[in-house]
Fold these 3 entries.
Entry 1:
Amino acid sequence: MKKIKCYAPATVANVVCGYDVLGFAIENPGDEVVVSFNDSNKTVITKIEGDNGKLPLNTEKNVVGHVVNLFLQQIKSDQGVNIELYKKMPLNSGLGSSAASSVGALVAVNELFGNPLTRTELLPIAMEGERLASGNAHADNVAPSLLGGLVLIRSYEPLDVIKLPSEMDLFVVSVHPHVDVPTGEARKIIRQQVPLKKAVEQWGNVAGLVAGFCTNDTALIGRSMKDVIIEPIRSMLIPYFDEMKVTALAHHAIGFGISGSGPSVFALCKKEEEAHTIASALHQLLSERNIICESLVTRINNKGAVIL
């Protein structure tokens, strides 16, 4: 039986100041999805591992089944498909867990059918997985997981997504505290109205961040990784966020912020040694305050999802 396995990477959405419009993929962690044909004319989730029994096998309630069904509708096929999902990252972590699952399933099933759709055409389907998972079809996780690198969502209506021409070899520190911050709830607390002065400051930071990545200017990236709208509110949901930020910057991080909706946080670093020092310092800080966490050092992933 022909089987296709895909690895889809975790992501850092927002990149501090680019709420819902910026995100980059990281080399690890990520999810693996295996697909194959069946004779039932139905999409069936046959196995899920790594979720501690939390995810449903019902294809209408699980993003992998949902996006595969949408894919089959788009290519007008009633072929049955089996799906195996291997979760390699925690749920509700702020690392784009649902996005990696959706992207992995779509890239794998597209390969299984001989790649009838381009990755650009797969993106709106992956976004529907996000709608199922969090109630909002945002692209700042699925786009970088699908395309790799740093991605800008210039517009949602119509959808206009640009993979930025940045090849900076930066190190990423990712720390995941074991506290519960569901994506849907984290979106609800955001203010719907913003003072013009803060909006202007935020626009400048977003533009500066994009310019910094495109010109390899780490000093500009650091100055631009400032969020005056979302972070002041969401950071209240993450224990000791301010202390972690001070610690990371004191150890020469380029910048520090919330990964997606949290609770994971991230730091960008120029040197691998600095990244490991920051990862250890943040892990120790949380451990001393009786908060269990995982920390890792990785790189920006410029390839996106890959067939294994």
Entry 2:
Amino acid sequence: MKTILYTCLLLITTISMQAQDVFNQTAEGNWLANGTARIFSTSSKAKLDGNTNKIGSTFEVQAGPKVGYFIIDDLAIGLEVFVSLTSTNLEGVSDNVNTNALFVGPFARYYVYQGFFGEATVGIGGSKTTTNIIGEQKSNIFGWRLTGGYNIALGNHISLEPTINYSWENQKPKDAGDFTPSTVISSFFVGIGFTAFL
């Protein structure tokens, strides 16, 4: 009798587990939330006539939260906010160069095949650079980023996502004449982050 009872209990448990819906992370109507944080410490040196001289050092903190909504299966659109704080100390100069930047833009992410996805972001922002000697300089920013990544599910609602990224950014000083050159920055980098699906 106990054997029959245990067999029935095991059968009911197995059927009920199989009947439960597995959460589809990229289904229409779901949300995604992602956060990225990076910390950089860079030291610059120049080598001249066999001598190596330190030019300066830079410390930078970046943070970029984003939220998206799946308008159809596998396609999410949303908004990203990116903040950057940078402090540069040039050798032989007592004054630090401090830059704060804010970038806001929409993004679209499409999951192509078995966890692989592509993402595009475009946006605008501004930066403010301050030094005691020169004063304050504000700039307008326009930029875009292309990302390729892979979704490694750690559970129904959390994924680890390694990415490869290419970004392009144009910084134009405010209140500058038409002949003032803008700064163009292009970057290629890899990243890893966590994404929550709700």
Entry 3:
Amino acid sequence: MENKESKKDILSFANSLKWNIGENFHDSLTQSIYTDASRIADKVVTVAGERKNTPFDGKIDRIVTSRTWGFPIMLFILSVVLWLTIQGANVPSSLLAALLLDTIHPFLKEMAESIGMVWWLSGFLIDGVYLALAWVISVMLPPMAIFFPLFTLLEDFGYLPRVAFNLDKLFRKSGADGKQALTMSMGWGCNAAGVIATRIIDSPRERLIAIITNNFSLCNGRWPTQILIASIFIGVMAPPLLAGLVSTVAVIVIALLGVVFTFVTSHFLSKTVLKGEVSTFTLELPPYRPPRVWRTLYTSLIDRTLIVLWRACVFAAPAGAVIWLISNVHVGDATIASWAINNMDGFGLFFGLNGVILLAYIVAIPANEIVIPTILMLTVAVSGIDGYGEGAGVMFELDSMSATGDVLKAGGWTLLTAVNLMLFSLLHNPCSTTIYTIYQETKSVKWTAVATFLPIAMGFVVCFLVAQFWHLFSA
């Protein structure tokens, strides 16, 4: 009995010391241990071919990780990457659309007619499956082929760990782990990969926060949606010479809003359902290395661009088939698509969206990459816009960004619709691949449901507030 009481006294004394030594004691202790270990290792360990940090690296780090210049440099680099992506993707995207939609699609239709293929099979395979694939390729391939190599070059150069270093303090203040900066950066490529990357976080509580909030990082499937909508509705409001810059700024604002929502949600979770003490970690900044351009191009194009594009096509093919079916199968006097859109239109307009967008996000749950082609097909199918396939889910003349804008505007889109779509693209449920990955990592239906439905709830709230303020000030 006396032994148990002495143990309790020791634990109570240790707990009181824990709060008396100050909140930075753990950081200082960890830093001193790593510093001593690094000094000893430098004296006794020699690694062949290893390049250590040089005074030149230190000079760069004093600039890119400084309190004054760190964040402006991060924003500038992100702006340059997005501007190059937006400006560089326009021409190849138009060329691909002209080839796949204006040339190959009519050829396939003529061939189907010549061999006597029945209309419904021709429509299902060519107007449904093929057009979904063609649009995904023409819209997704050019921006990904530019964005991924640029992102990989920054990673290869050694800049991304500096981004994590700059964001570490903000994540710790929000009750999360500083390593979440790395998983958030990974989520900008793919949210499923970002969720898996949270394994580097030791604390189960902080790892769960990182998993739930990773969806606020714009993944590769959502970048083209942001770029396309910003270029069509926001960039055109500026003079032609400034259109690309204005579009870039709009996309950057959405991306930064995602970071803000990550911090806010992390803080909310850490103060409510996921309370706990913030842990600490030591980040070793690697030396800067000259980017291996050709290897980077090969890696980013093969391992990222083509694999992501293949995944998008795998999901786009059945989605295109579903879109064609709901656009051509009638329930009474209306198609399934028309019936669903008409019933959801009022609810969507209440949030500054519309029924087409809501139905598109339901159909496009398998992959974010097919949201835009789904919206376009449904808009054409329901609106019956002349020149786009007789209103049966067909869109084979969209050979330019202006033509895409014409279709959306003919479907009743306004600037408010575009702005709220960009916001809803940021704040909505993860794709099916990410949802499955979240369940595999958490083994919890509860937390998978939270990670799935929390962004949707936030998306509707934000869109509602924007719509109300919009109507208030535009009245």
